[in-house]
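Hi V.,

Quick status before I head out on leave. The structure for the redesign project is tokenized and pasted below; the design run finished overnight.
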């Protein structure tokens, strides 16, 4: 039960990570998996690519295909809507984390 609840929460965190990194530069899936792993999220392609596609369909990301070393690589970038969502969610997350940190120091 705990694992399922945490997975649901982490799903939102992963989306914020994706928006954060696509705000800086376009990213591709394999790089994003490694970056997420660095933050403790062990996400495989069967989870990440459907998530990226859903985010693209929702208008948060755009996708551009490029040929790299003879192979097609899909790069994802944030859209204006994605940036707006990221900023709003970031404010809410910041408020929550500030509150959590304050209570842990009590």
């Amino acid at each position: 039960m705990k694992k399922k609840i945490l997975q649901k929460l982490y799903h939102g965190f992963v989306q914020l990570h994706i928006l954060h990194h696509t705000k800086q530069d376009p990213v591709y899936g394999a790089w994003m998996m490694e970056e997420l792993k660095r933050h403790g999220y062990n996400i495989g392609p069967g989870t990440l690519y459907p998530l990226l596609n859903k985010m693209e369909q929702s208008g948060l990301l755009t996708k551009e295909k490029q040929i790299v070393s003879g192979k097609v690589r899909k790069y994802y970038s944030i859209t204006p809507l994605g940036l707006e969502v990221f900023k709003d969610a970031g404010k809410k997350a910041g408020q929550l984390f500030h509150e959590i940190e304050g209570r842990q120091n009590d």
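Above is the designed sequence. The CA atoms of residues 19 and 38 lie 16 Å apart.

G. will cover questions while I'm gone.

Best,
W.
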